[in-house]
Amino acid sequence: MEQTSSTFAVSLPLLIGGGIILALILLYLVIRERRKTPSKRVSATEAGKAEEARSTTSNNKSDLQEPQPATPEKREEKPLRSSSSSEGGLPVHKEPIPETADVIRESFEEFTGRRLLIVEDNPVNMKLILKLLEGSGLEIETAENGQKALEKLRAPDARYEMVLMDVHMPVMDGLECTRQIRQDPQLKDIPVIALTASTQKDEVERILESGMNGYLDKPLVLGKLYSAFKIFLTQKPKQKSDRVMIAGEGEKQGLVTNANILDIRSAMAHTNNNDSLYRSLLDEFLKEYADCDQRFKQLVEAKEYEELHRLLIDLNGLTGMLGAMELYALVDRLKQIVEKGTHTLLEDYPSECHKAYQRFRREARRYLVH
């Protein structure tokens, strides 16, 4: 028993000493760990501040960039520019050019002295455009195909400010002509507006890819033609006009035609209520396309679908402009058949075309002799 007590008396100081040492080691580790922790907190704080600074800088940049679009209209049009026209900085309209309301022929006087080239192979369409712009003061020249247009544009004394370009023409079409215009350093900045009776997506894409700046769908509407000039021609300060449009002669005629075949009121909208102009265009159409029903039959039988498509495009615009409602609807349907490539369906239509054309011709002649 004494030996045990002696052993315990010896071991106790050793245990106490070892515990103290262990406690000191643990205390050291805790202190070291605490010293590290503030360092980490400072680092996290600094990172937070840096992040906040970056966020503030980003917001400041955003605030600075907001006022930049001082000319939002131009910025909106940039994505619409084709690669061929972007160099000139000209606007391009993917959608149809909008119609300006309450436009009369005298409205075009603000463009007096501007030089315009009209490229159109169809004499009826050409006559309509020239009549609509008659008395406007515009200096107008014409060409019947793309090749003739290029010759006029490249003449030493040429100074055209805008071109109205039919898309489908013989010799050289409007698309190829426009491509050459865009490749010519002397001509590339001239705005070119397409005249087309076909406004399907693929047709519009071809028009814009060629370098044209927009398109006017046929039949031409006075308000849209005015809008095109307003957009693309350098303007003089607009002077207000006190002129009031007077009802056209057609309103006084009192002749009622079958509106399902020949809608005179609809047609007058395309001739600015000018009855004498409408009669002139109607008479010219009957002469130029006297056998168009037979021509349709011949082209279908010969399977000359490309030539048939050109004929239908011309008829589509002209019949719409003249108010030939039944014929217009039929031609439009035939044009879609050709464009879809379902050519065998055309064999069912020659007889229907002949009858529809004869009905139109009777109504037209009845109106002309009244």
Automatic annotation (TrEMBL):
<dbReference type="InterPro" id="IPR011006">
    <property type="entry name" value="CheY-like_superfamily"/>
</dbReference>
<protein>
    <submittedName>
        <fullName>Response regulator receiver and Hpt phospho transfer protein</fullName>
    </submittedName>
</protein>
<dbReference type="InterPro" id="IPR036641">
    <property type="entry name" value="HPT_dom_sf"/>
</dbReference>
<dbReference type="GO" id="GO:0005886">
    <property type="term" value="C:plasma membrane"/>
</dbReference>
<dbReference type="Pfam" id="PF00072">
    <property type="entry name" value="Response_reg"/>
</dbReference>
<keyword id="KW-1133">Transmembrane helix</keyword>
<dbReference type="GO" id="GO:0005524">
    <property type="term" value="F:ATP binding"/>
</dbReference>
<keyword id="KW-0067">ATP-binding</keyword>
<feature type="domain" description="HPt">
    <location>
        <begin position="274"/>
        <end position="370"/>
    </location>
</feature>
<keyword id="KW-0547">Nucleotide-binding</keyword>
<keyword id="KW-0472">Membrane</keyword>
<feature type="modified residue" description="4-aspartylphosphate">
    <location>
        <position position="166"/>
    </location>
</feature>
<keyword id="KW-1003">Cell membrane</keyword>
<feature type="region of interest" description="Disordered">
    <location>
        <begin position="39"/>
        <end position="98"/>
    </location>
</feature>
<dbReference type="GO" id="GO:0000160">
    <property type="term" value="P:phosphorelay signal transduction system"/>
</dbReference>
<keyword id="KW-0902">Two-component regulatory system</keyword>
<dbReference type="InterPro" id="IPR008207">
    <property type="entry name" value="Sig_transdc_His_kin_Hpt_dom"/>
</dbReference>
<feature type="transmembrane region" description="Helical">
    <location>
        <begin position="12"/>
        <end position="31"/>
    </location>
</feature>
<keyword id="KW-0812">Transmembrane</keyword>
<feature type="domain" description="Response regulatory">
    <location>
        <begin position="115"/>
        <end position="233"/>
    </location>
</feature>
<keyword id="KW-0597">Phosphoprotein</keyword>
<dbReference type="GO" id="GO:0004672">
    <property type="term" value="F:protein kinase activity"/>
</dbReference>
<dbReference type="InterPro" id="IPR001789">
    <property type="entry name" value="Sig_transdc_resp-reg_receiver"/>
</dbReference>
